Amino acid sequence: MYKNINTALIHGGISMDERTGAVNVPIYQTSTYKQDGLGKMRGYEYSRTGNPTREALEALIAELEGGTAGFAFASGMAATTAVLSLFEKGDRVLISSNVYGGTFRVLDKVFNNFGITYTISDTEHPSAFEKDITPDVKAVLIESPANPLMTVTDIRAISEIAHRHGLLVIVDNTFMTPYLQRPIELGADIVTHSATKYLGGHSDTVAGLAVVNSKELAQRIAFIQNATGGVLPPYDSFLIIRGIKTLGVRMDRHTKNALKAAQFLKAHPAVKNVYYPGLETDSGYEVNRSQAKNGGAMISFELKENYDIRVFFESLNLIMLAESLGGVESLVCHPATMTHASIPEDIRKKVGITDGLIRLSTGIEDIDDILSDLSQAIEKSEVK
Ligand SMILES: Cc1ncc(COP(=O)(O)O)c(C=O)c1O
Fold first, then answer.
1. Could you tell me if 278 and 227 lie in one domain?
2. For residue 80, how far is its CA from the centre of ligand 1 (angstroms)?
3. In the list 285, 303, 342, 343, which could disulfide-bond 307, CB 3.0-4.6 Å?
């Protein structure tokens, strides 16, 4: 591992082509490999099992997250699905009360059918979390900050309790990236990513990654990856490697802009609540500061009752209403009807995902343009 992450982002893993000296890893667009005789392979036999471009990305993310091995999948959900496939009928997984809607959905509608159950747990409060650990619980799946209310979980504290009870700790690090937070150093066993977001960084590729911290887990995930087959294609692997090279400079700008946007929203008379762990007034500020470089670039907020959010969304000129996050462009979404629509209304209400909640993925445009777009859209949305 390079000592400095900014260097590792560019030179980590397998970063060039030994044969030709090409400074970028070639796109090995092949499904199979010639064998020199029966059982005489040159290291590869079939691209679901192994592909040099995908392997370069897998080595890179393992190095960046400080894990034993990395795995690249066709989407963030394919990565989560592969990790959840470690469990068996009768096992239970605890999940943070705010997780990406798709993570909830795959547990609720797919794994439930196979007898793998889940409990929503208040991982923000370690003592409440410990009370949820019943004998069938085998793992805890955390997002910190969590999607969409940016609630912060103390990864060190949860890992310590979880390991005392023999659980695996899985952290979805999509919102932070290894540039801002390294969950394995904080005690996690497995880290997952929707690489579709900041790692790819340009809203042009859907991809997922998983990193494990032991040889045993590496063997089990490698088996699942090959057996279930949701692998990332070579060209998409190349695009994610290319995105990661600029992760540091992008995240610096994303997070600088986000802090200014959060301060602007916090001070705005039309705004009821702002959720951003980079604000000193946020309940998650101290814990987040103890485990991450800063508050990231995702902000959620609610406008006061006399503002119409439909008009707000339609009045934005620069910031686009779209699913997803983490691209160079600023995006907003409405979690209740978009990213978290698959969570039943009663659970959404219970965990605080209100119909008025707006989520902002702060891009790297000029901050003055972002703020003036927010400002004019808020102004137009006032019901007079
Ligand atoms: C935190 C988080 N995890 C996982 C996912 C799923 O990733 P993908 O859309 O790449 O399947 C998302 C997608 O929005 C997400 O926001």
1. no
2. 9
3. 303
Count of domains observed in the chain: 2
Q: Which of 196, 203, 332 to mutate to test the pocket of ligand 1 (most atoms within 8 A of CB)?
A: 196
Give the pLDDT of residue 2: 75
Distance 57 CA to ligand 1 centre (A): 18
| Residue 370, pLDDT above cutoff 80 | yes
Question: Is 258 in the same domain as 235?
Answer: no
List pLDDT tens digits, range 24-72. 999 999 999 999 999 999 999 999 999 999 999 999 999 999 999 999 9
Q: From CA 80, how far away is CA 194, in angstroms rounded?
A: 9
User: Using one digit for the tens of pLDDT, what is the confidence trace for 299-326?
Assistant: 999 999 999 999 999 999 999 999 999 9
* Gap from CA of 56 to ligand 1 centroid (Å): 22
109 with 193, same domain: the answer is yes
Residue finishing a domain among 218, 245, 272: 245
The larger pLDDT score, comparing residue 338 to residue 278, is at 278
Do 124 and 230 reside in the same domain of the chain? yes
Residue 143 Cα: closest atom of ligand 1: 1
Give the lowest-confidence range in 102-111, 261-270, 281-290, 334-343. Answer: 334-343
Report angle CA 161, 171, 348 to the nearest 5 degrees.
95
The three-state secondary structure class of 46 is strand
Are both 49 and 176 inside the same structural domain? yes
Residue 32 backbone dihedrals phi, psi, to 5 degrees: -140, 175
**Ligand 1 site, CB within 6 A:** 75-77, 100, 102, 143, 147, 172, 174-175, 194, 196, 206, 208, 324
Bond into 145 cis (ω within 30): yes
Among 245, 267, 301, where does a domain finish? 245
Instruction: Give the other-Cβ count within 10 Å of 315's Cβ.
Output: 15
What are the backbone angles phi and psi of residue 321, rounded to the nearest 5°?
-85, 110
Give the CATH number of the domain where residue 30 resides: 3.40.640.10
Residue 323 belongs to a domain with what CATH number? Answer: 3.90.1150.10
The answer on 266 and 219 residing in a single domain is no
Q: Residues 148, 292: one domain?
A: no
Strands (E), the chain: 69-73, 92-96, 117-121, 137-143, 168-172, 190-194, 208-212, 271-275, 298-303, 320-321, 331-333, 357-361
Global confidence as pTM: 0.97
